[in-house]
Write a structure and sequence with these properties.
heterodimer; A: about 260 residues; globular; B: about 300 residues; alpha/beta; Rossmann fold; Alpha-Beta Plaits; six-stranded mixed beta sheet; four-stranded antiparallel beta sheet; 11 helices; elongated
């Protein structure tokens, strides 16, 4: 591993994201959808609070009147779904494009380790995602100026989003290393991500140990306690392992290209 | 500088390269010749560590291409056939990027990139996006990126394709200037290019080496025909020459060529045969007006080698 090489690859990739407009388009779409859902959720909360003033039955529904429960947590949920839809669009070109245009041939014959190439690309994509996430800080800022949401769940929720996004990217970069077709790459990463998302729903159908294993594998289960304000090492370890495994598979996939 | 020892490469069932060996000495410019699809690019990709051979060993600058690939790659500048460049970068950004990746220090990069751009005639497009420049300029950017860190070994896959005659001249001069300090392998279809640039030639055909030699040897090896102009009854001379059992073939020189009115004779064994031929001519009372070995050019040698292997 060579920090300088990683930095050079990182700079090139990041510039490429912004010069090809991919980053702008994805960020704008993301913010539009997230902003709309946030506004909708906030309006609903305001509506409930307003009605609760005159409706004593509604006023007893403490959970509905809690801004963290009614606005913050659902919005984190929405953001993670939008992220799931958007990250394959960011990752699909990383290796597929190089394979299609043949630039991979020069890249792999430059005096640079495969892992540096992967990390440079990974971090560039991660930076775009991070920009996306940071731009949503306007939502909690707005909440903090208008009401009194709990700060801790917001912070840990963001930690969860970052970890989850980082996991999405590592899977996306792996899918991209498998094919020279960007559409196939995006479809594969989207499919696998959705699978990791949906297995949480099958937990109730499977009993015993297997059910627990499935629950543990599910990618969105691990953000739940984080968005409640609880930092569980198990969740952090899950995401870090997820990232490491798919980066390792990407490395293998690049090596396998050489053998073909 | 470069050793290729018994290298074989299979693509699945298909054997692309079959047990080839050759060496290139330091400072040589080696021409790599062969018809399309005979594995020139495959050999170059193995030398640049893009993929390993199925069997055999490749050494560049004392390092094994498979085991010490990173060391080999530091010594090599490579221009792939497709000239793959990042279309979304400007020419100078791209060259800075390549120089950085090849481990040059930031301080050196600026001067060196400027120099390489001058050498390759890129100064007037340095701020343009690679997607906007013409094929000839792309080719030159490709060569510039191979040269940027002054590598000891240059591997150029068809470097002058797509250039106009003036650019070709410029690039050939550039390559010629590299001789001595750098070791160059270049593949090409353009045979005159080989005679201009290279001092050694490897001809491969169907994945095998058909010839490895210096250019002069290769061309003189092809000279087994001679030209004769003989005074006398041409018909009778022709018949008499054909009757000699030591001549492999006798042709009349083509009209409108230098050989008009003479005979092109291929001999089985030069010394023995020419003695008998002279004796025969004297017996018949003819006299030889002109006699010289036929000039062969690289094209003839190449076609000969390639068709011989093919049979």
């Amino acid at each position: 591993m060579n920090i300088r090489s990683i930095g050079i690859i990182y700079n090139r990739e990041l510039k490429s994201y912004f010069s090809s407009l991919t980053a702008y388009v994805v960020i704008v779409m993301f913010l539009l959808i997230a902003g709309y859902l946030f506004a909708a959720q906030l309006t609903m909360f305001a509506d409930i609070s307003f009605k609760a003033q005159t409706d004593p039955m509604l006023a007893k529904q403490y959970q509905l009147l809690n801004i963290t429960e009614t606005v913050v947590r659902p919005v984190f949920g929405y953001i993670s779904i939008i992220m799931l839809l958007m990250t394959p669009l960011l990752t699909m070109r990383l290796f597929s494009e190089e394979k299609k245009t043949g630039t991979i041939e020069l890249m792999l014959t430059f005096p640079i380790n495969d892992i540096d190439v992967i990390l440079g690309k990974y971090l560039a994509c991660f930076s775009v995602l991070l920009t996306m996430i940071v731009l949503t800080f306007t939502f909690p800022a707005l909440l903090l100026s208008l009401g009194e949401p709990e700060v801790k769940p917001i912070l840990t929720g963001y930690l969860g989003l970052v970890l989850m996004g980082a996991s999405f990217i590592s899977l996306g970069i792996f899918a991209s290393s498998l094919t020279e077709n960007q559409i196939v790459s995006a479809s594969v990463s989207f499919g696998i991500l959705l699978f990791f998302w949906l297995i949480s729903y099958s937990v109730t159908l499977v009993s015993g140990g297997l059910g627990q294993v499935l629950a543990y594998l599910s990618i969105n289960k691990h953000i739940e306690s984080l968005s409640k304000g609880v930092i569980d090492t198990e969740d952090i370890v899950y995401y870090l392992c997820f990232i490491a495994i798919f980066l390792f598979l990407t490395l293998r996939s690049l090596e396998a290209n050489r053998w073909r | 500088m470069i050793q290729v020892e018994h290298v074989t490469k299979d693509y699945g069932q298909f054997r692309a390269i079959d047990d080839i060996s050759f060496t290139v000495n330091k400072g040589d410019i080696m021409g790599f010749l062969g018809p399309n699809g005979t594995g020139k690019t495959t050999v170059m990709r193995m030398l640049t560590c893009f993929f390993p051979p199925t069997q055999g060993k490749l050494m560049v600058a004392g390092y094994n291409c498979f085991e010490e690939s990173l060391n080999v790659r530091k010594k090599i500048g490579y221009l792939p056939e497709r000239v793959p460049l990042y279309a979304d970068m400007t020419v100078s950004d791209y060259l800075d990027f390549v120089a950085g990746i090849k481990g040059m220090r930031s301080k050196e990069i600026k001067g060196k990139v400027g120099q390489v751009m001058d050498d390759c005639g890129l100064a007037d497009v340095n701020r343009k996006l690679i997607s906007d420049i013409s094929r000839g300029y792309r080719q030159r950017v490709g060569i510039a990126q191979a040269l940027v860190n002054d590598p000891e070994v240059l591997i150029l896959d068809e470097p002058t394709v797509g250039l106009d005659p003036q650019q070709i001249k410029g690039i050939r001069k550039l390559i010629k200037d590299l001789a001595g300090r750098h070791t160059v392998i270049l593949s090409t279809h353009i045979l005159p290019e080989v005679s201009i640039l290279c001092n050694r030639v490897v001809v491969i055909n169907k994945g095998r080496v058909a010839a490895v030699d210096s250019l002069d040897n290769l061309i003189s090896a092809g000279t087994d025909k001679m030209f004769m102009r003989i005074n006398g009854d041409q018909q009778a001379i022709m018949a008499a020459l054909e009757q000699l059992d030591c001549t492999a073939s006798v042709q009349q020189g083509e009209n409108d060529s230098k050989e008009e009115g003479g005979f092109i004779i291929a001999l089985d064994d030069e010394k023995q045969s020419s003695k008998r031929m002279h004796a025969m001519i004297e017996e018949n009372g003819w006299n030889i007006e002109e006699m010289r070995p036929m000039e062969t050019n690289l094209e003839d040698v190449f076609i000969q080698l390639v068709t011989k292997e093919g049979k």
